[in-house]
């Protein structure tokens, strides 16, 4: 038992600590510890650091631009090669089918989706910093590309007289699909080229941080809205219903309405094929998810369904017998590179900016998940450069914008992919499809490809269930999610993303403009200070109020600081000062009338004289000169007691105010001036203002703003709130027995003209006038 007690003694000692040190103000702490002001490097030193070069630094720069030099020399052939081959083959099969399917979203012929699944991988293999993402088309980005393509090349621009069409015997109008598709491919590749240029510029300018403004709730709401847009755009393909190509605000609503208006023209063969594909894909994907620990390689259900559907379509001749919509033609081999149409840049610059940011944000978000899982780092700026060069390169080969697909990346990682060697092998599988297998996929129904797209939207639709969790955790984040989702559905993806981004920034501004604040008190026997309303055992120091303002202070929330001050101390310092001036004016007038007598013990009424001092405030002033004694008297006014004049003066029960600036990160010039005014307003009513727990950069900022002078000095700044409280207690103990809220006033009673007093406002010039008036009355 004794041994147990001895063992517990050190633990008891470790559970407490006692610190003995001086009470530190800012001035005293700087003097004692010899503060060294930071010396910024000179221009010459910066130039030397930027321009100096060595063999080691040159190699580091080269490796940062070509990350392959970082990981390829350490590639473990025996351990990783087999896994990368298996992963590459699996991912390549999925990429082939998704490339065909996502081309429908980009509004280009399906064969160009194969190019988009092949070319971007070649450059990312050398330039990318993620070892696991699968580069290629993504439904959200493809849909954003498609919206630009449809707005710039709608069907209405390619209507021709059917009598001029080859093999047409009837009269009327038809769409020149060959010219339309060629123009749309040119627009998509030009947009891809421009997106790549913007991404390279962003990477060179080191502004990869821009993706930080796309918060997770914003991205969740945006991608869910995009999933809904993708679903509606593919629904008409599953039904094989022709509609107009709407674009802009409410376009998705118009498309949905027209689709249901024409649902009577649904092709049954396409509908059955689409529904079966969706059902089979979702069931097998669910099996893959539930038994992923038992199944070494996920079942490539998209590939299986596509092969089966192609065989059925070819054997049953669905196009001729049931008028089913099929792929028809897939280019075999590669097209020669073509330059972009620079004249189109001005029409697509706004859309290309949003596409560049969204594509980058999706890729980096997915890449960071796997980088964290496997213990390596993602370079955001290098990713901008890698995707930019990939899009520039692929744009020359008639591709549309590339990023990464969540499902494809999950396949690459879950099947054992270790590096981008798996990616280059998947590109080889796509290459085989381009060169040799394209012809075999021509009988495939478009509804099957659309159904594959819809089946892959499940993960994005499931994000809807994040909203209740977000609402419980943070209501503002939930509002950002919902607002971005609704705005993206109504306004379109580009304007919806911008609206969501602005709404998110607005919530930040509002949270800074209306921050949390509160009066703090002391936990007895400690140096801990907590909000008075939150704890029962909190004790406020006598005559001291402590206010903590949890936000940077600037022009937008300075009024919030002032209102929080009034709520904490319980009075308005300016109104108190004005009321005191009014009371002094009435006292002077009544003394001259002889209705009050000023003594050293205070102000008393003459016996037997009706005291008219309790006249209403609205009574007009009497400027009649009266004979009064001509000797000087010194009087004291206790502003917290009942006065012989009817002026309602708020009580001031405190003598000190401490502003806890522990959460204040910066002050602008408006805040500096306003804080100095606040100090002067409280000083005039005998309330001293102190500052505590500030950050060092605030002192430097105040020094640059000429905040300190003979009145406002550094000795009112303390390192902690407890330092300030102890200093105030010492000051009160050492002060004279006279109550500091008493004000000595010397009146020369021979003066016949009343001293003028004016109501005050908050400007510095008028504050000086008020102080001058008080000095004329005060001894």
Give me some keywords for this one:
single chain; 779 residues; alpha/beta; six-stranded mixed β-sheet; two-stranded antiparallel ribbon; 29 helices; elongated; disordered C terminus; secondary active sulfate transmembrane transporter activity; STAS_dom_sf; Solute carrier family 26 member 4; transmembrane
E-strand count: 14
Shape summary: elongated
Largest sheet: 6 strands, mixed
Strands of the widest sheet, in order across it, are 6-5-7-11-12-13
What's the Cα radius of gyration? 39 Å
Structural class: alpha/beta
In whole angstroms, how far apart are the ends? 72 Å
Note the beta-strand portion.
5-15%
The average pLDDT score comes to: 82
Stretches where pLDDT falls below 50 for ≥5 residues?
608-634, 736-763, 773-779
| Share of helical residues | 55-70%
Number of helices: 29
């Amino acid at each position: 038992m004794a041994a147990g007690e001895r063992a517990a003694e050190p633990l008891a000692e470790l559970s407490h600590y006692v610190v003995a040190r001086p009470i530190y103000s800012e001035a005293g702490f700087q003097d004692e510890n010899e503060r060294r002001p930071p010396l910024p490097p000179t221009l010459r030193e910066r130039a030397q650091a930027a321009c100096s070069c060595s063999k080691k630094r040159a190699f580091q720069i080269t490796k940062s631009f070509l990350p392959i030099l970082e990981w390829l020399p350490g590639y473990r052939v025996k351990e990783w090669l087999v896994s990368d081959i298996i992963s590459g083959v699996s991912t390549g099969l999925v990429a082939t089918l998704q490339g065909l399917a996502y081309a429908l979203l980009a509004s280009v012929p399906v064969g160009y989706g194969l190019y988009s699944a092949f070319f971007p991988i070649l450059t990312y293999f050398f330039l990318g910093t993620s070892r696991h993402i699968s580069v290629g088309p993504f439904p959200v980005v493809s849909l954003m590309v498609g919206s630009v393509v449809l707005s710039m090349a709608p069907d209405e621009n390619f209507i021709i007289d059917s009598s001029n069409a080859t093999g047409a015997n009837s009269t009327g109008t038809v769409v020149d699909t060959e010219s339309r598709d060629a123009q749309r491919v040119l627009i998509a590749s030009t947009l891809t080229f421009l997106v790549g240029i913007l991404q390279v510029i962003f990477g060179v300018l080191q502004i990869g941080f821009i993706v930080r403004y796309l918060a997770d709730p914003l991205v969740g709401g945006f991608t869910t809205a995009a999933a809904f847009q993708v679903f509606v755009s593919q629904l008409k393909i599953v039904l094989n219903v022709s509609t107009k190509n709407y674009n802009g605000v409410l376009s998705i609503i118009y498309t949905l309405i027209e689709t249901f208006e024409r649902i009577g023209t649904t092709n049954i063969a396409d509908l059955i094929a689409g529904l079966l594909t969706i059902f089979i894909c979702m069931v097998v994907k669910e099996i893959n998810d539930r038994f992923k620990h038992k199944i070494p390689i996920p079942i490539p259900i998209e590939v299986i369904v596509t092969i089966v559907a192609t065989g059925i379509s070819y054997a049953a001749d669905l196009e001729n017998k049931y008028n089913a919509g099929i792929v028809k033609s897939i280019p075999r081999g590669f097209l020669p590179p073509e330059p972009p149409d620079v004249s189109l840049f001005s029409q697509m610059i706004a859309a290309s900016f949003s596409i560049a940011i969204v594509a980058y944000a999706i890729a980096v978000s997915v890449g960071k998940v796997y980088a964290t899982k496997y213990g390596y780092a993602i370079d955001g700026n290098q990713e901008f450069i890698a995707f930019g060069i990939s899009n520039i390169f692929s744009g020359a080969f008639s591709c549309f914008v590339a990023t990464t697909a969540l499902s494809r990346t999950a396949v690459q990682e879950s099947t054992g992919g270790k590096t981008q060697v798996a990616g280059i092998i998947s590109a080889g599988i796509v290459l085989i499809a381009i060169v040799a297998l394209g012809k075999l996929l021509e009988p495939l129904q478009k509804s099957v490809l659309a159904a594959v797209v819809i089946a892959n939207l499940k993960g994005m639709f499931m994000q809807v269930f994040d909203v209740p969790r977000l609402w419980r955790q943070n209501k503002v984040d939930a509002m950002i999610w919902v607002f971005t989702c609704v705005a993206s559905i109504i306004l379109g993806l580009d304007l919806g993303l911008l609206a969501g981004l602005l709404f998110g920034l607005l919530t930040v501004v509002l949270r800074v403009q209306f921050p949390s604040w509160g009066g703090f008190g002391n936990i007895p026997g400690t140096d801990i200070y907590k909000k008075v309303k939150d704890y029962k055992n909190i004790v406020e120091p006598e005559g001291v109020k402590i206010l903590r303002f949890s936000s940077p202070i600037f022009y937008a929330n300075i009024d919030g600081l002032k209102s929080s001050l009034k709520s904490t101390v319980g009075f308005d310092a300016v109104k108190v000062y004005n009321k005191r001036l009014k009371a002094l004016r009435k006292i002077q007038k009544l003394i001259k009338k002889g209705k009050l007598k000023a003594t050293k013990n205070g102000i008393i009424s003459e016996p037997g004289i009706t005291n008219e001092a309790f006249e209403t405030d609205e009574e007009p002033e009497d400027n009649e000169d009266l004979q009064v004694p001509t000797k000087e008297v010194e009087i004291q006014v206790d502003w917290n007691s009942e006065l012989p004049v009817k002026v309602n003066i708020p009580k001031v029960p405190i003598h000190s105010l401490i502003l806890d600036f522990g959460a204040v990160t910066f002050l602008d010039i408006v805040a500096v001036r306003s804080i100095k005014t606040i100090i002067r307003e409280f000083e005039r009513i005998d309330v001293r203002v102190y500052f505590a727990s500030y950050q060092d950069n605030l002192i430097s900022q105040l020094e640059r703003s000429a905040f300190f002078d003979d009145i406002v000095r550094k000795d009112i700044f303390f390192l902690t709130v407890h330092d300030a409280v102890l200093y105030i207690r010492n000051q009160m103990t050492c002060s004279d027995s006279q109550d500091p809220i008493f004000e000595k006033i010397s009146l020369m009673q021979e003066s016949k003209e009343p001293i003028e007093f004016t109501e005050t406002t908050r400007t510095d010039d008028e504050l000086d006038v008020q102080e001058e008036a008080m000095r004329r009355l005060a001894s």
